[in-house]
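Supplementary Methods. Inverse-folding protocol.

Structures were first reduced to a C-alpha cell string of length 459. This string, shown here, constituted the complete conditioning input.
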C-alpha cells in the first residue's frame, strides 16, 4: 500500500519539499479532538446502515479514543509526510486495527471531514469566547456597586460634553459586549450545520444517514448542497468578523483607559499586576496590557482581511487554497481569548481617582446642554436656545468661571425665562438629575439598567 492515502495512481515519490510546503499538521493538529469525535460518529452511522458490523464500529471507536488520549497526553508522534491531522489519525488507526481501519473513510472525503472538524472547533470556541465575554460583562456590572453615584465627564470629539454617571459608562460596554455575544450566537447557528457525508463535492452513492451523524454531534441540521458544502468557508469568515468586532470594542476600551490613566486625565489607577515598568525610568508604570490589547486588534483585523482575499476568486468546489483558513482563524481566536481573559481582571482591579475627577467636573461647561433644554422647556425654540446659551458660555469662558457663578442679572439679560430657578439646573449634580429619557444617564434609569444587568448575568 502507498504511504499516501491518495497514492495509488502515482508511480513515484513526492518531493520532500512539496511535503513540507503542503503539510498542515503543524497547525491543524489542534483539530484532533473534533476529528476523533466526528470519526466515531461516522463509524457508528456506518454500522447503523450496515457498512460496518457493530464489532468493527467498536474497534474503530476504541482505537480512535486511544489515539485521542495519546495526542492529549503529548505522546503521539505526528508525521509530516501524512500531511494533516486527519490522515495521521487514520493511519495510526489502520496500524493498530488493520483493514477494519481502512473502512472508516467510506462515504466521506477529507473535504467534508475537514469542514466538519473545523465547524466543531469553531462551535466549541464560540462557547468559550461567549463565557469570557460574560465574565467581562460581570466585571463591569460588579463595578456599579463600588462606583454608585460617581459622575464622570462624557466626551465627544475627545472634548468635554455632558456629565454621565460612571455606572452608565460601565453599562455602555455591557451593551457592546452583548451585541458581540448576539453576533456569536447568530454565527453559531450557521456554523452548526453538518457537512459530513457530502463527500468530495457530489455526495456519495452509499446509503449513509447524515441526520444520524448530525444528531450524534449536536448539529442543528445538515448542509443541503454538496457543492456548496465543499467550497463553503462563510462560517469561518463570519466567525473571524465577529472576533474582529470584539477586538475593536476591546481596543476602544483600552485606548480610553490608557488616556484615563495618564497624569493629564488622572481618572484611573490601573492594577499594577497588569502593568509593566521601564528599563531606564524608575517611576514608570506602563499600561502594557491595554496597549497590547489595542495593538493586537491589528492582527485580528488583518486575519479577517486575509480570509476575505483568500476566497474572493475560488471556483466551486474545493480548492487547496482553503487550507490557509485555519491559521488565521486560530490566531484570531487565540488573540481575542487572551485579551478577554486579561480585560476582566483589569476592569475588576482598576480604581477611579474620585477626588481628581470631582475637582475638575465643573470644567468644560458640562451643564450647558441642560441649561439649553431648560430654556426649551420654557417655549424657546431649540436653535434660539442654543444661541442664547452659547453666548452665556462665551461670557463665562472670558471670565474664567463656570456657568453657575455668572450673576443672575446676566442670565435675565440673556432671556427673561432665566430667573433664579436657573441655578437648579446648573452644575453637574443638577445636570445629571435633570435627565429623563429612557436610555439616558438619569439616575433612576441607570439604576433600573444596573438591576436588569445584574439579573441577566446573575451577579
Amino acid at each position: 500500500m502507498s504511504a499516501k492515502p491518495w497514492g495509488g495512481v502515482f508511480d513515484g515519490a513526492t518531493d520532500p519539499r512539496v511535503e513540507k510546503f503542503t503539510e498542515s499538521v503543524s497547525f491543524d493538529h489542534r483539530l484532533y479532538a473534533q476529528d476523533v469525535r466526528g470519526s466515531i460518529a461516522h463509524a457508528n452511522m456506518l454500522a447503523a446502515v450496515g457498512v460496518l458490523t457493530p464489532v468493527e464500529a467498536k474497534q474503530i471507536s476504541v482505537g480512535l479514543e486511544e489515539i485521542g488520549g495519546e495526542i492529549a497526553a503529548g505522546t503521539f508522534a505526528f508525521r509530516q509526510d501524512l500531511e494533516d491531522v486527519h490522515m495521521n489519525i487514520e493511519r495510526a488507526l489502520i496500524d493498530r486495527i488493520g483493514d477494519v481501519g481502512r473502512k472508516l473513510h467510506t462515504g466521506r472525503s477529507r473535504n467534508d471531514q475537514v469542514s466538519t472538524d473545523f465547524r466543531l472547533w469553531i462551535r466549541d470556541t464560540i462557547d468559550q469566547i461567549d463565557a469570557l465575554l460574560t465574565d467581562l460583562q460581570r466585571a463591569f456590572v460588579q463595578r456599579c456597586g463600588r462606583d454608585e453615584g460617581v459622575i464622570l465627564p462624557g466626551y465627544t470629539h475627545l472634548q468635554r460634553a455632558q456629565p454621565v454617571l460612571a455606572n452608565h459608562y460601565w453599562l455602555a460596554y455591557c451593551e457592546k459586549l452583548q451585541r458581540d455575544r448576539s453576533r456569536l450566537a447568530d454565527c453559531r447557528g450557521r456554523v452548526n450545520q453538518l457537512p459530513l457525508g457530502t463527500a468530495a463535492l457530489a455526495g456519495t452513492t452509499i446509503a449513509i444517514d447524515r441526520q444520524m451523524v448530525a444528531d450524534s454531534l449536536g448539529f442543528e441540521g445538515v448542509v443541503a448542497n454538496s457543492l456548496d458544502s465543499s467550497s463553503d468557508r462563510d462560517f469561518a469568515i463570519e466567525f473571524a468578523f465577529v472576533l474582529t468586532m470584539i477586538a475593536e470594542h476591546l481596543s476602544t476600551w483600552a485606548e480610553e483607559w490608557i488616556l484615563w490613566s495618564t497624569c493629564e486625565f488622572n481618572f484611573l489607577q490601573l492594577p499594577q499586576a497588569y502593568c509593566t515598568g521601564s528599563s531606564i525610568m524608575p517611576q514608570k508604570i506602563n499600561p502594557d496590557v491595554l496597549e497590547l490589547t489595542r495593538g493586537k486588534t491589528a492582527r485580528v483585523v488583518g486575519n479577517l482581511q486575509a480570509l476575505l482575499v483568500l476566497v474572493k476568486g475560488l471556483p466551486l468546489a474545493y480548492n487547496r487554497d482553503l487550507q490557509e483558513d485555519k491559521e488565521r482563524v486560530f490566531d484570531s481566536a487565540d488573540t481575542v481569548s487572551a485579551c478577554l481573559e486579561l480585560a476582566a481582571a483589569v476592569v475588576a482591579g482598576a480604581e477611579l481617582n474620585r477626588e481628581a475627577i470631582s475637582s475638575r467636573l465643573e470644567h468644560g461647561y458640562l451643564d450647558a446642554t441642560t441649561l439649553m433644554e431648560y430654556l426649551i422647556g420654557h417655549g424657546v425654540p431649540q436653535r434660539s436656545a442654543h444661541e442664547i446659551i452659547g453666548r452665556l458660555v462665551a461670557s463665562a469662558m472670558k471670565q474664567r468661571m463656570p456657568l453657575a457663578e455668572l450673576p443672575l442679572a446676566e442670565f435675565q439679560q440673556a432671556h427673561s425665562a432665566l430667573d433664579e430657578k436657573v441655578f437648579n439646573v446648573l452644575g453637574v449634580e443638577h445636570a445629571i438629575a435633570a435627565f429623563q429619557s429612557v436610555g439616558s444617564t438619569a439616575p433612576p434609569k441607570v439604576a433600573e439598567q444596573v438591576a436588569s444587568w445584574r439579573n441577566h448575568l446573575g451577579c
